[in-house]
Amino acid sequence: MDQIILQILNGLDKGSAYALIALGLTLIFGTLGVVNFAHGALFMMGAFVSVTVSKVLTISHKVVDESRTDFLGNPLEVDVPYLYDFFGQAAGDVIIDWAVPISILVAIPIMIAIGFIMERGLIKHFYKRPHADQILVTFGLAIVLQEVIKYFYGANPIPTPAPEAFTGSFDFGVAFGFDPNAIIYPYWRLVYFFFSLIVIGAVFAFLQFTTFGMVVRAGMADRETVGLLGIDIDKRFTIMFGIAAAVAGLAGVMYVPINPPNYHMGMDFLVLSFVVVVVGGMGSLPGAVAAGFLLGILESFASMSAVINVLPGINQIIIYLVAIIILLTRPRGLMGRKGVMEE
Amino acid sequence: MSKSNFSRRGVLKTGAIASAGLALPTYLRADGHTGFTNAPGDSEVILGFNVPQTGPYADEGADELRAYELAVEHLNGGGDGGMMGTFSSKALDGTGILGREVKYVTGDTQTKSDAARASARSMIEKDGAIMITGGSSSGVAVAVQALCQEAGVIFMAGLTHSNDTTGKDKRANGFRHFFNSYMSGAALAPVLAANYGTDRKAYHLTADYNWGYTTEEAVKSSTEALGWETVNAVKTPLTQTDFSSYIAPVLNSGADVLVLNHYGGNMVNSLTNAVQFGLREAQANGQNFEIVVPLYSRLMAKGAGANVKGIFGSTNWHWSLQDEGSKAFVKSFGTKYGFPPSQAAHTTYVQTLLYADAVTRAGSFNPCAVAEALEDFEFDGLGNGKTLYRGADHQCFKDVLVVKGKENPENEFDLLEIVEVTPVDQVTYEPDHPQFAGGELGACNPGA
Questions:
Q1: Where is each Leucine-binding protein domain found (chain B) (predicted)?
Q2: Residue B270: closest CA among A45, B213, A183, B279
């Protein structure tokens, strides 16, 4: 039982990332009809906003420490962050420690801007082109963004830890009467899960309870009619592209303490996220979120050694297996609109 | 009326055969006057450096390239000479190789066997490279080694740690300076037993490919021989990025040690996840829970950050070694590039020097003469103490380092500390050891 709870927790956590990326993908597909293969790259860009903020906060000047030597035996040049000069060492350390949460504030405008530039500068020219062209151009863009990141940050993962207060793990199980060590779960992963719920909730609330959101939803249902009412729906969809980019970016910002970011992390998530979107139903926002969590949980269960011992390799194919079954029995996906991906 | 002998089908057939003939790789054509593939002219010789320049190991590849460039500089008489001054063989004199200036071409393996073979083939056929070297990844090394055997050039393996490179997939034209999984297990096990005791239960997470299998087997057999029990060994996909589902059950499995047979990004993520799940602070079976990483590199340790602190592993070489060869190399590399070399840089630099030295001692670029000069060659001064290039399998035998993530690093490169230099005798095995069984070295192929 404890292992089942543990894997459900794990699945929810994995599903958080899938759901956030798939939510953004669905927003773009539902509004602009574009299959955005650069969406994983937006997740990666968000992660590197975190890395950049961490680096900026630790910009330092050199102080020579004569008592220590570097690897060549010369006096060691110690890096002293400028933040120490402005705020003192104690306050400076706290700011540096909280680099990842601080990055959220920086990432939102940056990711919206990136989304705007991407949509206005490139993708809008492909709206009337076949899906294959859109896929090619967005995939190409993803590779370009990847290479840009690699050029500036290198290919190795860059450790970017969570704030000290959220490192480590706590004994989840004891609270529910299990033995100690039965359900140990890292604090930051719980933070990530709740953060994703907040972002998902905010997106839904925005679409559900604001006039802007209502118009966008109307546009998603019938773009032409909304346009005939004199509403500049294209402009609103562009804004939605920016919001979708921000959602993917925020997923990346908060993901970096879970796994050190590297330049190809977007590609690692992209294919799975597309499967999530298809399983959830193309264009369905609740479907993307539900499928994200569902597939995250299934993947976690399939990775248990008890399962692998009985069905070797199931951990590698489970998501695709589920996708095949769902698409065979319900081509529109779990919550997809009738007619989408159906004859 | 005369009747033509050429039918449409005949013309097509002839054309196809002629095209195939023209398309034959150059190394399959007769080259009677030299007797071997890509014999160099009088003025220069070309070496092929085949490293990952893109993909997850690109930083490692970049460090290898730096080392290659340094080796070429030293061979051609530039710089401070690096380890040429400490190398026990004094055949190299800084005038290139056999009087030819050393030139080089580079290729991008992308850490993919097919891409690595394609770039190696291009360097041999188009650029005239007489020796191919590079890494990383055992899959790439095995694939390129087989190609070099067919082509008739020497392959001086770079970063490849799988037993199979000099085990079941060994080739007469291939040589490996780097250590292997068996050696890691043999060096690590006694240190682990000394630090953690002999009554331990290990849980292995293993990268699901050749290198992972041989490393798991090596560590399992070495630790079990000292009394450890293996409670589970789970394969993890190479493409896995989040290992939480695999790590979460470990604490309740009855194990008190987690062995991460992972490398590169896999290791960085699995170790990070293991630390997140509190395994470092946990207790099991009345003992502190421990994590072991059989193969370390400084670049990986950098990626894993503070998570490596106190964790044991093995490495082929480390810049903090204090022998004269290592100090000379670190000074040379560090002065040129501003940071210390990685083990990948070290092994590729050494391989280049060893190749050049073998050619010089043989007095010929003929790969069979070079192979003969390398086989059972004993040397010193290249950073790992006395070393033997064993003729039976073309594997180098030398001391192996057991390292531990440093608790209090003094600078950004000071991530690992050497806890034991395991003597070569302790990591030496017979050529027909079961972990290296199968395959034949075969005969040297000079090509042409």
A1: 47-406
A2: B279
Q: Which residues of A touch B56 (CB under 8 A)?
A: 155, 262, 264
Those residues with Cβ within 8 angstroms of residue A121's Cβ, 6 or more apart along the chain or in another chain: none
Question: CA-CA distance, B414 to B403, in Å (whole number)?
Answer: 12
Contacts of A6 in chain B (CB under 8 A): 248-249
Flag if A14 and B244 touch (Cβ within 8 Å): yes
Contact by Cβ (8 Å): B312, B199: no
Tell me whether residues B273 and A259 touch, CB distance under 8 A: yes
Q: By CA distance, what is A171's nearest residue in B? A: B278
Encode pLDDT of B283-306 as tens digits.
Answer: 899 999 999 999 998 888 888 888
Residue B88 pLDDT grade (very low, low, confident, very high; cuts 50, 70, 90) = very high
The answer to whether the predicted template modeling score (pTM) of the entire model surpasses 0.90 is: no
Distance from CA of B58 to the nearest CA of A (A): 6
Question: Has residue B324 got a pLDDT over 90?
Answer: yes
Chain B residues closer than 8 Å to A71 by CB: 319-320, 330, 334, 339-340, 411, 413-414
pLDDT in tens, B365-381: 999 999 999 999 999 99
Nearest CA in chain B to A71: B340
**Residue B26 predicted with pLDDT over 80:** no
Q: How confident is the model at residue A339 (pLDDT cuts 50, 70, 90)?
A: low
Minimum Cα–Cα distance from B332: chain A residue: A72
Nearest to B59 among A11, A155, A300 (CB): A155
For A111-146, the pLDDT digits (tens) are: 999 999 999 999 888 888 888 898 899 999 999 999
Amino acid sitting at position A91: A
pLDDT in tens, A56-85: 999 999 899 888 888 888 888 888 999 999
Q: Please determine, for residue A340, whether its predicted confidence score (pLDDT) is greater than 60.
A: no
Identify the CA nearest to A33 among candidates A115, A116, A120, A130: A130
Neighbours of B69 (CB within 10 A): 18
How many Cβ pairs within 8 Å bridge chains A and B? 133
- Among chain B residues, CA nearest to A298: B245
Do the chains contact at A14 and B245, CB–CB below 8 Å?
A: yes
